[in-house]
Write a structure and sequence with these properties.
Blueprint: H1 2-45, E1 62-69, H2 74-77, H3 84-95, E2 101-108, E3 114-116, H4 120-162, E4 176-181, E5 184-190, E6 196-198, E7 202-205, E8 208-211, E9 227-229, E10 249-252, E11 272-277, H5 281-287, E12 298-302
Parallel strand pairs: 6-9, 9-10, 10-11, 11-12
Antiparallel strand pairs: 1-2, 2-3, 4-5, 7-8
Helix pairs in contact: 1-4
Bound molecules: zinc ion.
């Protein structure tokens, strides 16, 4: 049972690996197929029907016999001396073990040399099939390259979206769970899908304007967001507002005030890139209760930031 589960697991991994890598491998496979098809095609162009003359000794005493080709006869065919059908057999064997084909072979009665005997019909067939092969391989190559370009183009677009650190637009109020009290709106939980969040100082809900001065809960707890712009006017928030959320960039307004028990919201920053702070460095020190810089896991803290500059 356990080995059964394991093999299913391994198969699933293999399938996802093929799907992930396939887009990149497909053009290479198509390229190899194209090169082989082109070689076959260029060889078939010079192909001529065989004559009743031994290529080895020139004797005209040739006996034509019918041979069944396939996997079993493959090794004996290698010594036949004709190069083109050697390649042809490679393709023929690929099809199926049971797919035997009839072909003619010339056997020299003087020296015993044998060679693939091609009639005019054989030559025409081979030329047509190698031409078809070439056309199919070219189509396959073009399609696989187009798929790759399309895929790369799409991921490039996604990247260019990601190149902007901040949300371009205000995050809608229905991206949050919230409650209203007096003139205030209290955000409880972020439930939006966007990884970039820009919170406005006030929201108009049912025709009435509500101000944000405080969060009511761990708004971004466990959210997978990349950046957040906190609103001007925000005075308090729970110190674990950002718990379990690996934020990369954050704007903190100067209106945020320290709390009596030591305001350690920064304790939840992990591998954060930049804190953009609206106030002065002195204000920051007051806000964080003179926290040791090493205790704040952020690469850089920028002071005196104007939130209107946070466009890209
Ligand atoms: Zn001969």
């Amino acid at each position: 049972m356990i080995t059964g589960c394991l093999s299913i697991f391994l198969i699933l991994i293999a399938i996802s690996a093929v799907i992930a890598v396939g887009i990149f491998v497909l053009p290479f496979i198509a390229g190899v197929y194209f090169v082989l098809s082109y070689l076959m095609y260029s060889r078939s162009k010079n192909l001529e029907a065989s004559t009743m003359e031994c290529p080895n000794c020139g004797s005209r005493d040739i006996k034509i016999q019918s041979v069944t080709t396939g996997v079993e006869t493959n090794s004996s065919l290698n010594g036949s001396g004709t190069t083109f059908l050697g390649v042809g057999h490679v393709w023929g064997n690929r099809n199926s073990r049971t797919n035997y084909k009839q072909k003619r072979e010339g056997v020299c009665q003087s020296c015993g040399f044998n060679y693939d005997y091609l009639t005019d019909e054989d030559v025409t067939k081979t030329k047509n099939s190698s031409k078809l092969n070439l056309i199919v391989s070219i189509i396959l190559l073009i399609v696989s390259i187009l798929i790759l370009i399309g895929f790369l183009g799409r991921s490039k677009n996604n990247n260019s979206d990601n190149s902007s650190i901040w949300a371009n637009e205000i995050t809608a109020i229905d991206s949050f769970e919230y409650y209203l009290d007096g003139n205030n709106v209290y955000l409880k939980k972020y439930i939006g899908k966007d990884k970039k969040v820009r919170i406005a100082s006030s929201y108009t809900i049912d025709g009435k304007e509500y101000v944000i001065s405080s969060f009511a809960g761990r708004v971004f707890n466990g959210s997978s967001i990349d950046s957040v712009i906190l609103p001007e006017g925000l005075v308090t928030m729970s110190k674990d507002t950002f718990s379990g959320c690996r934020l990369k960039n954050i704007y903190i307004p100067s209106t945020l005030q320290t709390s009596d028990d030591g305001y350690k919201f920064y304790k939840y920053f992990y591998n954060t890139e930049k804190i953009y702070y609206g106030g002065t460095e002195e204000q920051w020190k007051t806000l964080t209760n003179n926290a040791n810089r090493a205790d704040i896991d952020v690469v850089e803290i920028i002071y005196n930031v104007n939130p209107n500059d946070l466009n890209n």
